[in-house]
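Subject: for your reference before the review

Hello V.,

The reviewers asked for a structural picture of the protein, and I figured it would be easier to keep everything in one thread rather than splitting it across files. Below is the amino acid sequence we used in the manuscript, unchanged from the supplementary table.
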Amino acid sequence: MKTTWLIDLDNTLHNASHAVFPAIHLKMNEYMAVLLGDGTNLADEETVNTARLLYLKKYGATLLGLINHHQVNTADFLFQTHQLDNLSALLRYESGLKRLLTRLPGRKVLLTNGPHLYAQQVVKLLGLHRHFDQHISIEAMRVHGRLRPKPSRWLLKKIMAKQKCRAQQCVLIEDTLNNLRSAKQLGMKTVWVTQYLKQDSFFRRAHFVDLKVRSVKQIPAKLSRLCR
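And here is what came back from the structure prediction:
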């Protein structure tokens, strides 16, 4: 049975929490300070942070909250918040990622809630641009015309239909538990990557996690636990 690997990008293949996420969050805050301001004054930092985290928790993506409550333009928001001139200097990642992808049998699909241009840049800097069969970024996560990023089960169902595979043939590799929960509810296999999570030591393995690893590089040695 051919496996389709759905592989997250940020905090899965690289340490986004180190510098990339802080830089993106700063740009998001700048964008939202204007958006939530009164036309003359910018919104204060506390208001912006509260709104950003609330939308992230409620919708799974800050962008969805901004669309639903403030009718922002998706393309404009993604462009303004993910243009990082010094991206290469911000990246932190392990060596051996190419070898990891080569050792995973089946199709490899990059599945990220980040925008396409940003994901392309990161994957190229990681040296992995030739190792994925397909990239699915947030712009392509539309179901019936509506944006449905992870953890949407509607999105995952659409991906399975497009990939022409059953849930039992899919493995989602992620750092985010909510995304893994949705995948498991559909019958997918799930791998939880924890090394870039600041509070990993406080988490126990959830029932919807088939395999918990610190590093994605540990997955090939544990394939039997996913394929049995």
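For the response letter, the relevant points are probably these. The chain has a mean pLDDT of 93. The two ends are 11 Å apart (CA to CA).

Happy to draft the paragraph if you're swamped.

O.
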